Here is the input.
Amino acid sequence: MEDLSDFTSGITEFLPYSQGKEQTTYRDTSTGTDPLPPLLDKAIETNKKSDAQTQTQKDTIPKVDFDVQKLAQWLKRIYPLVESELQKGPTPLSSEQILNTNENEDELEIQPYQKISIKSKDNHQGLSTWLSIYTNNTPVLVLTTCAVHDDWCEHVEQSIKVYIPKRISPSQFVVFQELKTIPTKACIETLSTNPFYKDIFAGSTVSGDLYIWKFVTNKHQGDVEEIFCENLQHGSVAGLDWPSAGRVLTCHANGWVCLWSIENQFLKEREFLVKNPTHGVVELTSIASISLTDFVVGCADGALYHCNNTNLRAYQTDIEIVPMKNHKFSVTSLFKKEICGKRLVISCDLSGEVFFHDLFSSDDDDRKTILRIPLPFQNNIACSSDGKHIFCPGIDGSLNVYRIYNGRQLNIKGALHGKGNMIKLSDNGLWIVIGIFDGDFQIFRIAN
Here is the structure.
């Protein structure tokens, strides 16, 4: 038998969680003998589903009685109206839709890019034209200067200069570098690029000589070749345009308009005399070609005439002359533009008043002028390809940009001296050249 100690241990007390008189209900968690509920297989759905997108319930459509004769009469009456609307085609865009009055559109990002100097003692008028794309979405540029002439030209050492863009590696930056200087017999008064073949361009002198040049590209670099040089019967050219790839249209101050073929040889195909229905022969200042037989001329008195000739065989023919909405002063800018699928003619006079004309509208002549914008003292303009902005040369090498649909004006400051009298926008809408500012031209780059 083991010896037991008489030592008494202390009492260890376990206090309850609930104090006071609270009572706790205890639940028996031992294994029960009650039968379990029947099991359900949740993987198999026994409820019938219905597709919410497919209606399987058949609705009962109430039977409606209608008069078959009245329905036939209504269809007979409405059918010609529907056919007439379909023959007219879609509803033409309004002037507001053409110019897209989106107030939230961002402004153009335009920056001065490069200055080109052509110093001349007497020449204070600048001329330019853009040719085809040469590199990095940048076209070839042609520049020249001209003096003010009261009668004939005594400047025998005149020329045009051709500049090609050179890419600076490894960046995408380009610099316009002079490629060639081409002598001419007298001062060049007009320069224009063939829009159908942008390597072909033309220039006319004060003495009435018309040059046709072609820009060619060889393995090393570009070059310019003279295709034709002809002295014209009606003297100096007031304006010229291209109705097709192989033809050039010239207008002269004495009222004559001539169509020349330059395909195989330099040949006059037709000539027209533009007359005012009341006052006789008019003094022409500019021309915009619509087709081989359709053109618009601007006059020194501010008149505009839409001329059409349907006789293609006769050498000298009478033309149909339709007066358009007149300007108050001499027409200084005249060109065609396609905006939102509509072919428009844009004109500007000496005071800066700009008209947008829709020649193919069915309205009368006054209503064909769909837009009128006053731009005081801005008589040389260019229009963006979307028809939303007008560009004008400013003072001291600056560029003025006008948003057409709300009148907002943006001025891109320059660093030259004088007031510009020439502006030309490239065909891809990314380059602008203005001049001449004390012998300097300023090139701008449009980012968007």
Observations:
- DSSP finds two helices and 30 strands in the chain.
- Residues 49-59 have pLDDT under 50 and may be disordered.
- Residues 68-88 form the longest helix (21 residues).
- Residues 236-380 form a domain with the Methylamine Dehydrogenase; Chain H fold (CATH 2.130.10.10).
